[in-house]
Amino acid sequence: MNVLIINCGSSSLKYQLINMDDESVLAKGLAERIGIEGSVVKHEKTGQDKVIINDSMANHKDAINIVLKALVDSKYGAVKSLKEIDAVGHRVVHGGEKFAGSVVITDEVVNTMKECTDLAPLHNPPNIIGIEACKELLPNIPMVGVFDTAFHQTMPEEAYIYPLPYELYQELGIRRYGFHGTSHKYVSERVSALTGKSNKELKIITCHLGNGASLTAIKDGQSVDTSMGMTPLEGLVMGTRCGDIDPAIVTFLMNKKNLSIQEIDNLMNKKSGVLGISGVSSDFRDIEEAADKGDKRAQLALDKFAYTVKKYIGSYAAAMGGVDVLVFTAGLGENSGPARKQICEGLEFLGIEIDDDKNNTRGKEVEISKSSSKVKVFVIPTNEELMIARDTKTLAK
Ligand code: ADP
Q1: Between the N and C ends of the chain, which has fewer C-beta atoms within 10 Å?
Q2: How far is the CA of 98 from the centre of ligand 1 (A)?
């Protein structure tokens, strides 16, 4: 069974075609600058060099059309005809309270997704456009929606409610939803495979540290708390997002700097985080390099980031009454030994001890804790596409 995974962003589209008989990737790629001049698809058939397809794409439907053509191309395609695509799995960012798991997409499901758009105005519309385009171009092929928020629907009420008037939760759905759920779920399931223990017996803290970053506390295999909130702005210091700040700063700044709603939103989402503190970059590689050369603000950004992650680890250990496993994943979590070391330093009191030699690793699934460490610490590369493909396979059958 071949499953096509589609992940639509506002001007981009990532895709993977996976053979679910052995979970191998047949082809993958990225369409960029959709609706903008210079749109391009970077397509890669497994085992071949990447090809660059320059073609105009006015919208996501055009992009999907080009992707489908690439997938059946005689030179760099991965299948002979579109009939060999058996199902499509779509990543959807926000499922609100409506979706606690993946679902087969029907017209009713699309309408419910549209109702969640208020909660993710930047993310859900392109996801829905991608679904509608696939429905037209690949009629009669089952499609499945996999939500970033779904894994976190198990959070207890005291974890997800905000201390605002309760009516606002009832009326507008203002509550913590959490994101990166597919990634947190994937790595926590890998923990079972690596430890030989069911994750029902384990208290796990998963650290998804990329450009966007979030931590999740997982008990009995279920998300019991997570650092992102109603939107992906809350929680850790991120590449360009501020994460937790005093909410009064918002009105203070709007007043002092005469900022509009869009301007303050842009400031907190695009100009803050480690970019805002360092003034160097949102990319941790650039910041680590600048800090190595003695840039004090770059060092401060790294220190603030590690300190925030450390505090969340402590609070989630408290929330779960302990921690057995700590996992690092995503761009920074998988690749930066120095960041992992800085985060874990001082957490020996929780039983977290990492081994410097083992920690000198990138992009591999490996244990990095000392044999004496009470808490097992792992680096586990995330694989959201595979997780989406697995759910799609199960549901499409
Ligand atoms: P997202 O999917 O949120 O865009 P990723 O999970 O791809 O993010 O992570 C991207 C980030 O990971 C980059 O911005 C960079 O800061 C960080 N990163 C990737 N590789 C390294 C590395 N070798 N050292 C330090 N940071 C890295």
Answers
A1: C
A2: 31
148 a catalytic residue: yes
282 Cα–ligand 1 center, Å:
9
Contact 176, 153 (CB under 8 A): no
Structure tokens at 266: 């842009």
Same domain, 70 and 136: yes
241-278: pLDDT as tens digits = 999 999 999 999 999 999 999 999 999 999 999 999 99
Residue with CA nearest ligand 1 atom 12? 331
Give the position, in ligand 1's atom list, of the atom nearest the Cα of 213. 3
Nearest CA to ligand 1 atom 7: 331
pLDDT at 57: 93
Please give all residues whose beta carbon lies within 6 A of any atom in ligand 1, as ranges: 210-212, 239, 283-285, 288, 330-332, 335-336, 362
The CA distance from 213 to 236, in Å, is 6
148, 225, 324, 391: which one is catalytic?
A: 148
Q: Which residues have CB under 8 Å from 107's CB, separation 6+?
A: none
Q: Is the pLDDT of residue 343 over 90?
A: yes
Structure confidence at residue 127 (pLDDT)? 93
Residue 190 within a domain: no
Same domain, 225 and 324: yes
Q: Which pLDDT score, from 0 to 100, does residue 123 have?
A: 86
> How far, in Å, is the centroid of ligand 1 from the Cα of 285?
8
CA distance 217 to 223: 6
For residues 237 and 374, state if they share a domain.
Answer: yes
Predicted local confidence at residue 354, as pLDDT: 98
| Structure confidence at residue 9 (pLDDT) | 86
* Interval between CA 198 and ligand 1 midpoint (Å): 30
Residues 101 and 213 in one domain: no
Total domains in the chain come to 2
Q: 232 and 139, same structural domain? A: no
Mean pLDDT of the chain: 96
Q: Do residue 134 and residue 229 come from a single domain?
A: no
131 and 72 both lie in a single domain: yes
Ligand 1 pocket: which of 277, 292, 336, 379 to mutate (most atoms within 8 A of CB): 336
Look up the CATH number of the domain holding residue 93.
Answer: 3.30.420.40
Mean predicted confidence (pLDDT) in 321-337: 97
Residue 13 belongs to a domain? yes
Which structural domain, as residue segments, surrounds residue 62? Answer: 2-147
